[in-house]
């Protein structure tokens, strides 16, 4: 838990996240790499997304604007401390028109 919230946001740079050496020394500019996230409290479920926005994406060939969800690398045994229970509500179809 960071700052009383359950999320952290930052721009990848030489000051975030903390790494041995510099971030640019680990993953060079214009290169790709992996980032592994974990909980210091042991096995916990983690969710996340990556959002990228470039204001001038329309004028720069190959520029990317968009987002995607992070995917899991491992699965821990499910229990109340390391899993998510997602409620599913049935749709309310009373107001929908009936087709012929």
Question: What would you note in describing this structure?
Answer:
The chain has one domain (1-82). The chain has 100 residues and is low in regular secondary structure. Strands 1-2 form a two-stranded antiparallel sheet. It has one helix at 23-26, and strands at 49-52, 66-69. The longest helix has 4 residues, at 23-26. It contains one helix and two strands.
Poorly predicted regions = none
Instruction: Sketch the major β-sheet.
Output: 2 strands, antiparallel
Radius of gyration: 20 Å
What separation lies between the terminal Cα atoms? 53 Å
If helices are DSSP runs of H or I spanning 4 or more residues, what is the number of helices? 1
Secondary structure: helix percent: under 10%
Shape: flat
Strand order of the main beta sheet, please?
1-2
Q: Please indicate the percent range of residues in DSSP E strands (runs of 2 or more).
A: 5-15%
Number of strands: 2
- The succession of helices and strands, N to C, reads HEE
Break the fold down into its secondary structure elements and pairings.
Blueprint: H1 23-26, E1 49-52, E2 66-69
Antiparallel strand pairs: 1-2
Keyphrases for this structure?
single chain; 100 residues; little secondary structure; two-stranded antiparallel sheet; 1 helix; flat
């Amino acid at each position: 838990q960071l700052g009383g919230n359950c999320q952290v946001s930052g721009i990848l740079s030489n000051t975030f996240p903390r790494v041995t050496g510099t971030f640019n020394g680990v993953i060079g500019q214009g290169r790709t790499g992996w980032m592994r996230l974990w909980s210091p409290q042991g096995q916990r479920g983690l969710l996340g997304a990556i959002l990228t926005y470039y204001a001038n994406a329309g004028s720069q060939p190959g520029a990317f604007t968009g987002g995607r969800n992070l995917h899991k690398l491992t699965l821990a045994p499910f229990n109340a401390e390391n899993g998510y229970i997602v409620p599913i509500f049935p749709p309310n179809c009373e107001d929908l028109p009936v087709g012929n």
